[in-house]
Amino acid sequence: MELFRIKRDIPFMKHALVFNAISFLTFAAAVFFLITRGLHFSIEFTGGAVVEVEYSHPAEILKTREHIESLGFGEVQVQNFGTSRDVLIRLPLRGDIKQDVLVDRVFGELCKVEGGSISQRQGVTEQGETVSKQICAKADGAEPVKLSRSEVVGPSVGAELAADAAKALAVTVVGIMIYLAFRFEWKFALAGIIANLHDVVIILGFFAFFQWEFSLPVLAAVLAVLGYSVNESVVIFDRVREAFRKYRKLTTHEVIDHAITSTMSRTIITHGCTQLMVLSMLIFGGQTLHYFAVALTIGILFGIYSSVFVAAAIAMWLGVKREDLVKVPLNKEDPDDPNAGALV
Amino acid sequence: MNRYPLWKYALLLVALLIGLVYTLPNLFGEAPAVQVSSAKVTVKVDAALSSRIEQALKDAGIQPDFVQLEGNSVRARFTDPDVQIKAKDAISKALNADPAEPTYIVALNLVSRSPKWLASLHAFPMYLGLDLRGGVHFLMQVDMKAALTKKAEALTGDLRTLLRDKGIRHAGISRDGNSVIVNFREAELRDKAAVLLREQLADVEWTPLGAGSELQLSGALKPKAMVAVQEAALRQNITTLHNRVNELAVSEPVIQQQGLDRVVVQLPGVQDTAKAKDIIGRTATLELRMVDDSTEAQAAAVGSAPVPFGTERFTERGGAPLIVKRQVVLTGDNLSDAQPGFDEHQQPAVHLTVDAKGARIIKDVSRENIGKRMAIILFEKGKGEVLTAPSIRGELGNRFQISGAMTTQEAADTALLLRAGSLAAPMTIIEERTIGPSLGKENIDKGIHSVIWGFAAVALFMCLYYMLFGVFSTLALGFNLLLLVAVLSMLQATLSLPGIAAIALVLGMAIDSNVLINERVREELRGGASPQVAINAGYERAFATILDSNVTTLIAGIALLAFGSGPVKGFAVVHCLGILTSMFSSVMFSRALVNLWYGGKKKLKSVSIGQVWKPAAEPGTTDAPQA
């Protein structure tokens, strides 16, 4: 099977300006949505409430989820915690509702579903302290659901996470730039990293626009894309260097076109394969991996695009020359030359 | 040219075998078990305990699959959970005479069903994270009263030094609950002291009390300072818990403050609650105190006189009682490192390094007390034991050692506990839960399905597109998966759902190397190279690109590893390892297969790499008009 029959080099760079304008617009749009809408952070970042209830009978998770969702608190997670009768409900922090009120409302709803009503009951603990607690009781005195714990996750942990993410991002960017500058040339390093950040910002832009939940796995996906998308640029840069060596007559323009064209089939097949994997995650991975896979999908698609139209184009605008990449060996052929090796 | 030397095949074969052996335990699943471990550093878990457990089970009429000693614990495996619970009760009853103060921790656990010969090769299955299999959840209560008492105790010491330095005579310092009381004979001295103390110890509220010649200054911590002490204690406890949990090698622990005096600890993938509880629950702190060798003290030691004022009675390791001054010279807080090692007589010892403040104290105290004995006391669960009480032979610096009646294992354990740091205040576990595995089961199935279907789709495409070379690539990809799982199992990494996602992603990315190679080979063929040359050039030329692109990916992976936490870290570990294994498998392994297949053929006419379409024009001649 053969998918690509490219007869001659496609003049990508001829249209570079147009595509750069398009990518700049998408980038600007992403930044715009990031600023105006912001990211919808998960409770790992923002903090949130966790309500734990204990049913007197095995809980129906799906039913419970439906009822709590009907309260309109946004993204709720309902899961078993420990036994089949313990249910853990996670709710995001809401600035407009006080945390304890939120817990009360959730518990009230669950109680109503079970046909009970909320009342206060005074009790004495084993240590002899008098405590007042909220209980849900039916007419016959039975307690169908008990509030065993409610907890608030403070936002301070989230601040720490955000700081760590920023650090990881910075280290990756600097690390990749140093490597590219060392292995190729600073122009490529700069072009590669701009293309890379372009992808990251666009992923974030999608998450901001659709208000998808930005959780820790999504963060991991975004940073993985950072490493992944630069691959693409590296493969093309590699070809650029090779083409400079091989085809001495071609202009920079043509060399870049040739590099992109000759790696085209590899690019599509590689990304296709990775996308197959990610697609499989999207289909079979369930809710937890959903946004992770979505972030990767966007990253893969924009990774191809950005390495062609952003990385290569920027490298071209920065004025990459044959001399930048092909070091002319000096006097290597003549070992008897007294000046051999005496480079200043 | 396409031939590998024998050693390369041997190397690959060994890698394949190792991969198989270490991947295998993951396929067996797990059986219910009971695990017994020591509740104290001083209680040893050995073969004798193993036979005691066997006996206890036999007495209760329970038949275990096996009882085996494994590291620091004994595990007994059973056929079903009902037997497991019965066995736990039976063992607990037999081993712990006093349930309030258990000598051994008996806990429910899961043990791999893999056969013994695999375990003897140290081939164990991977740990699965909280999201995949549940885990343990602890809620711990910090004893804030103890933190305040400790602070007051420290204050008493500071006060003594301060008043001595300024030459203010006092008639004794004592601690009453959380307040410190200084006695004076003259009002003048008291006033002088009050001025000094208010200035120097601003955190303390000083109130003059008493009249006549019985004058006192009573100091109590200001409410604000009290809150600060409690917050600091909680913070230190959390840090210490972090250190201890790290010793458990859990990759995604959650340790968070809850409320004012509680700490939540979640250990995903740890069914080994016994070990977790053991390490987390230990409150080992070290204190250095002077031994009281006066005649009254010696009399008190043998029990013929009361313990003198300001001293305490401890038992030395080995059994002899010892009278030790209450005043603490140095605590574990000043410890910067503890390492197990040997002393000059080749006896096991713990080498300690203290910080600058500690070094100064140690230097002063040792200089002033040459010839006297200093006791090194290890506190565990509120009970102290003198590890050793050597005579001070000369001035000590910031590095010194504890040796004495210790085995190598005890030295290592003590060092570990001391290194892990001390708790500012004791903690008790007030809630303990195991997170149900039902959700985890669902997640694990989903994760595995995504890997399998993704793999199948990629494999199918590769085989169709690249024919035989695609088959080689698929085999290399399979080899990569095998190696990755084997390495993760070897490292006993905790696999979480993001970890599985990373496996899938790594497989998707690993195929990149093979695509690069195959495309290169096709390109060489297109350029008119002979099959053997094309294969060789394809592998050689693609390698530089593969290296470059993987290094950049690795940089991102390492950054994630360094700064990520929780699921991000789990993802990063798999991601980084996967890149390394994929480089090995896609370059070495697939080449080996190709060489094996084509290398020996002298007159190779064609290779099965799918269709190679030759364009009429040479590449690069864009300006030449084409039909």
Structure keywords:
heterodimer; A: 344 residues; alpha+beta; 4-stranded antiparallel β-sheet; two-stranded parallel sheet; 10 helices; 8 strands; 59% helix; 15% strand; elongated; B: 627 residues; 5-stranded antiparallel β-sheet; 22 strands; disordered C terminus; membrane (chain B); SecD_SecF_C (chain B); Protein translocase subunit SecD (chain B)
Protein model, in words:
The complex is a heterodimer of chains A (344) and B (627). Chain A contains ten helices and eight strands. Chain A is α+β, with helices and mostly antiparallel strands and 344 residues long. A four-stranded antiparallel sheet of chain A has the order 3-4-2-7. In chain A, strand 3 (77-81) and strand 4 form a beta hairpin. Chain B has 627 residues and is an alpha+beta fold. In chain B, 49% of the residues lie in helices and 23% in strands. Chain B contains 16 helices and 22 strands. Chain B has helices at residues 6-23, 47-59, 81-95, 116-120, 130-133, 144-165, 187-200, 223-247, 273-281, 295-302, 356-368, 408-419, 437-490, 497-526, 531-563, 567-599, and strands at residues 30-38, 66-70, 73-77, 104-112, 127-128, 135-142, 173-176, 179-184, 204-211, 214-221, 254-258, 262-268, 285-291, 311-315, 321-331, 335-342, 348-354, 374-380, 383-388, 399-403, 427-434, 494-495. In chain B, the strands form six sheets. Chain B has a five-stranded antiparallel sheet with strand order 14-15-13-18-19. Chain B has a four-stranded antiparallel sheet with strand order 2-3-1-4. In chain B, strands 11-12-6-21 form a four-stranded antiparallel sheet. In chain B, strand 18 (374-380) and strand 19 (383-388) form a beta hairpin. In chain B, helix 1 packs antiparallel against helix 13 (437-490). Chain B is elongated and about 115 Å long. Chain B starts with 5 loop residues before the first helix and ends in a 28-residue tail after the last helix.
